[in-house]
Amino acid sequence: MQDVVILGGGVSGCIAAQLLASEGLESAIVEPLARPGGNHQSWDHDEMTFDVGSIFFRTGTPFLRMFPFLADICVPVKPALQRIVDDGGLLTYPFDFRGDFADRGALEKLMILGDITWNRLWQRRPGTAREFVHHRMGSRLGRTTGLLTYMERMFGEPADSLSISLADKRMGQVSRASTLRKIRKLIRQDPARRAKPPQHMVRPQAGFAAMYRQIYQHLESQGVRIDLDCAIESIRRSGDGFTIQTADGIQQARAVVNTMPLNILCNLADIPVARALPQVSLKTICCSFRGDRNFDGNVLYNFLSTGMWKRMTVHSDFYGKTPDGRAYMSVEFPYRSEIASDIALLEDLRSSTRSVGLFDGDLQMAGSHVTPYAYPVPTIANERTSAEMLEAITAFGICSVGRQGRYDYIPSANKAVNAVTRILNASMTRPEGTP
After folding, report:
1. Which of 23, 258, 312, 395 has the fewest Cβ atoms within 10 Å of its own Cβ atom?
2. How far, in Å, CA of 114 to CA of 31, rounded?
3. Is the pLDDT of residue 191 over 60?
4. Cα dist. 414→214, 373, 375 in Å?
5. Which residue blocks in 261-370 are alpha helix, DSSP H?
6. Which domain holds residue 406?
7. Does 73 fall in a domain?
8. Residue 403 CB: number of other CB atoms within 10 A?
9. Average of per-residue pLDDT across 377-390
């Protein structure tokens, strides 16, 4: 019997395995997918590699401190994040000081500052995502920046039903960048004295699988066993431990760490639940382009009031164009139950970008891919349900971590390190008999 079985070999599973190995515990990762990386997946089409998942990895952050060898295989880049909005065309993401504030008329600027001040002083304590945005950046900027529209597109829920925890984790970067204090600092700050940003990197050109194979090899060198393409059929308590039935046989462990979606875990362990938790899935269309794209950013966010897509990543800016000179990019479309056809999604992209003067040329689609269970739907009601499920899972004896395992929107690998470390430190104890 081994010490710990980790369900899922994505970023949170790898982090958990590294933390457990550093404590001298024997663990095994069981990953149902045949390719390494969990939801961090890449796909090849002709000479192009597309992906979905985390985009940038920064030097000096927890993820690269945990796996420092990744700096040798990832590609150094300079991020250029932009967003498109209804009345401003192309602006910097998350907040464009000039476009969102400085270039506006004197009366509009006074109204924005007054709106921020009023909301900060007189609005009651926020309880929803909409109230959070209004409290942090005022209702006028919340509307003109397109933040609330983007939030609702991303989760398929009105901002009034989305929780404040989501707003702080996913949208806090935008709202913090546009508070009264931040605007005042930008007005007074000497650009030459601004802190230099850390070095950013993206996954290797070969794709996420190449990156995770390096992580898996590192973990295996520390005694972690990794079973890919290993479907999990059931999880049962067995004496002081657990019996995990897989398609390849039975595994027994003193403890289980879960990173899989709560719905799936409860079904595998026969844990009764009041209702299933909804999830957002992503359909990623893989496009190539020749012509004048008319924007410089390598990541483009859709803050328009139209269009179904949420984010575009121009991979050719990082890895170079195809031999015949075409740029290529991934475009993510979130959905809850049904999604339009590939042809309809491509037309949606063309129509929405054409409205702001982008992609003057030949935009084609090379393929599409679906990522189920991309991220949770953090409404207030769903957070209550997930808390009840986690309480039952803890009572069953399983430690659940990560975006899927906690039904928690964790926006980056660096945040995942901190979250997994915190939960494991609070929940896991050294099994009896281990050194």
Report:
1. 395
2. 53
3. no
4. 18, 20, 17
5. 262-268, 316-319, 342-354
6. 2-42+58-68+204-276+378-427
7. no
8. 24
9. 92
